[in-house]
Amino acid sequence: MTDTLPDRLALDPDSKFHDADLLQREIGVRFNGAEKTNVEEYCVSEGWIRVAAGKALDRKGKPLTLKLKGKVEVWLKDQPEG
Length: 82
Fold this sequence. Notes:
This protein is mainly beta. The protein has one helix spanning 20-23, and strands at 8-10, 27-31, 34-36, 39-43, 48-57, 63-69, 72-76.
């Protein structure tokens, strides 16, 4: 496994951007300078994250999400930031 993170990653196992092996490692996400712990999906090149909208669920039982635009930075927490 490489130590480079993909441009886009999702927690949802049904997403084509889901990577279970990579998600077993702890990934840090910083959005507009603040570290976030509730990110469902991110895209660095397009500059957005998806976060859960409270406890609301859609009709398939998945959390409703909000798409927030801004500067996105990601890193593996078990490595020094660089």
